[in-house]
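Weekly modeling sync, notes
Attendees: S.R. (lead), two postdocs, one rotation student

Agenda item 3: backlog of single-chain predictions. S.R. asked that every request posted to the team notebook include the full sequence so nobody has to chase files. The rotation student volunteered to paste the first one in as an example of the format we agreed on. Action items at the bottom.

Example entry:
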Amino acid sequence: MLQASAVVVLGAAADLATKAWAQSRLAGGHDITLGGGLLRLQLVVNHGAAFGLAARFEPVLAIVSVLIVVALWVWAARARSRLERVGAALAAAGGAGNLIDRLIRPPSVLHGGVVDWLHVSFYGPTFNLADVMLRGGVILAAAAWLLQQRSGARPAAPPGSGANRRSSGTRVTR
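Predicted structure, as returned to the notebook:
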């Protein structure tokens, strides 16, 4: 659980730091183009969900985001493998980063917009580090979980669960 919490906190902090950088360097319509136009850094504030859906419903999006972040953190805390745990924690970190934007950014609490600043030429919407962590983390955690299911192997119990301790009771045989 400590590992998952650390990933969530550090991931959300990294996302907020990159957004602060983007706001300071890309404000006023300043764009930075890299890789011959493959990557463009541009500041966009999104008041909706993915692709701008549900704009003007920021309070609902914030509440749904809280529920998703909590569910992802619980998944991370209960994960049976390190890869699944890290993936779910990364996804929770991404969700937390965008949730914090919705809570603290102008114009007011629960009405804030998410700061997006990455745009690749072959993908339509502009996004941020939180989006990368959210999507990549879910894919990583789901793949790890599916591999466990497919192999049929029972991974070790999470640390601290007590499932790996030997019983001190007597063994009954027939």
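Discussion: group reviewed the output briefly. The two ends are 40 Å apart (CA to CA).
Action items: rotation student to repeat for the remaining queue; S.R. to check formatting next week.
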